[in-house]
Amino acid sequence: MERLAGTRVLLGVSGGIAAYKAALVARLLVGAGARVDTVLTRGAERFIGVTTFEGITGRPARVEVWEDVPTDTHVALGRSADVALVYPATAHTLAKLAAGFADDLLTTSLLAAGCPVIVAPAMHTEMWEHPATRHNVEVLRQRGVHVLGPDTGPLMGGDEGPGRVIAPEVAVDAVAEVVAGGSVRDVAPAGQASTAEARPRDLAGVRMLVTAGGTREPIDPVRFLGNRSSGKMGFALAEVAAERGAEVTLIAAPSALPTPPGVTRVDVTTALEMHDEVFARLAGVEVIVKAAAVADFRPDTAATSKLKKDAGAPTIELVPNPDILAELGARREGADRPVLVGFAAETDDVEAAGRTKLVRKGADLLVVNDVSAADAGFEVDTNRVLLLDRDGGRVDVPLRSKHEVAGVVLDAVVARLHG
Ligand code: PMT
């Protein structure tokens, strides 16, 4: 059974660069069985056309309030919706909603909507952090509007910080939660928790090592054995930890991601290099988070010249790499041992496999992701994890942005630091 079967969703799209992601939101909603009516602001129409939404949803997408006047267009869509999602919600649209404006089809529809309303803000950091926007968001929250995000990450024009629209998958999950009677504010206090200024400083002065990305094991000067890790999960952990006051060293396997603000980055390529950098930097470290996907094996020797196709398929002899996490786990006895957090990429029987790995590698916490899911694990902006601790505890973290997952993992780290 599709989880939004028969649900009537009013999808509002306002005018920011993130409007292009609303097309994916529409597709995911339709895929989940929803009937989607799209209303774009005139600003949104400059970024993405109605035809895209009509093609995806199979229903008219509208901008103007002056069409089909006898059918009460200005209120009909709001009245008939089971849930409304504004994705992205610009600072301007949030201000209009807070003030009760009714000057276009989106605002009239939302004023007429008796259903739950979710907004996914997207804007530059200064606009998000401006007292006017803060006030408007607070007004909307008090009125029962669910505020989803924003996330932290790259913004238009090379900027970086809070203000990035939450991932489409997370928005659609939130719609399903709200339709099921839940509140996205309960599970993800995103409007506050995802901004640097509102994050707790509960890791102030804590020295932390984070590993991220996928190691590359050279076969010859142009080829390597690698994996799909983009570094997003580890970089999100480093970024959120730094925002919470930690002194973070990020040991990064090749990744195109920018270095998070306030983080010291050490670039490595192979598992052996990562091993050496981790063990050279242990002094005074209180927390180690191993989010990197480390190759278990490497070619015994790497050819110094490019292997020629004409020479036939090469035989590549593999030898095991050191298991960095297990080595750390084995030597971490003693009063001042660091809190050790491992990750596990699993595809089958995820909890049992994670529990076994937690014990075998001697970690305190293990974050298990089911990498067979398309919206979790490698490369994507979202993750869905099971957080296990060595004392038998478990926390299910539903689909969230990697920054929000990082926040939950760091909450568990803080709890362990405080005994
Ligand atoms: O980078 P992204 O695209 O955002 O993707 C995130 C991720 C899927 C890579 C991340 O969430 C994740 O699961 N990282 C761990 C992947 C992995 O290598 O899992 P594993 O089950 O093979 O290893 C378990 C643990 O042992 C990991 O903490 C790993 O860092 C560590 N390990 C593994 C092998 C090795 N030789 N040394 C290690 O330290």
* Helix count, DSSP H or I runs of 4 or more residues: 16
CATH topology of the largest domain: Rossmann fold
CATH superfamily of the largest domain: CoaB-like
**Which structural class matches the secondary elements?**
alpha/beta
Main beta sheet strand tally, sense and closure: 8 strands, mixed
- Give the N-terminus to C-terminus distance in angstroms: 44 Å
- Unreliable stretches (pLDDT < 50, length at least 5) are 185-197
What is the number of strand segments?
A: 20
Question: What Rg is obtained from the alpha carbons, in whole angstroms?
Answer: 24 Å
Beta-strand percentage? Answer: 15-25%
- The helix fraction, in percent, is 25-40%
Rounded mean pLDDT score: 91
Strands ordered across the widest β-sheet: 13-12-9-14-17-18-19-20
Compute the number of structural domains: 2
Overall shape: elongated
- The CATH architecture assignment of the largest domain turns out to be 3-Layer(aba) Sandwich
**Top CATH class of the largest domain:** Alpha Beta
Bound molecules: ligand PMT
Describe this structure in words.
This protein has about 425 residues and is an alpha/beta fold. The protein folds into two domains: about 10-180, Flavin prenyltransferase-like (Rossmann fold, 3-Layer(aba) Sandwich); about 205-415, CoaB-like (Rossmann fold, 3-Layer(aba) Sandwich). It is about 35% helix and about 25% strand. The chain is built from 16 helices and 20 strands. The strands form five sheets. It has an eight-stranded mixed sheet with strand order 13-12-9-14-17-18-19-20, with helices on both faces. It has a six-stranded parallel sheet with strand order 3-2-1-4-5-6, sandwiched between helices. α1 packs across α9 (about 170-180) and α5 crosses α8. Ligand PMT binds near residues 231, 290, 321, 345 and 378.
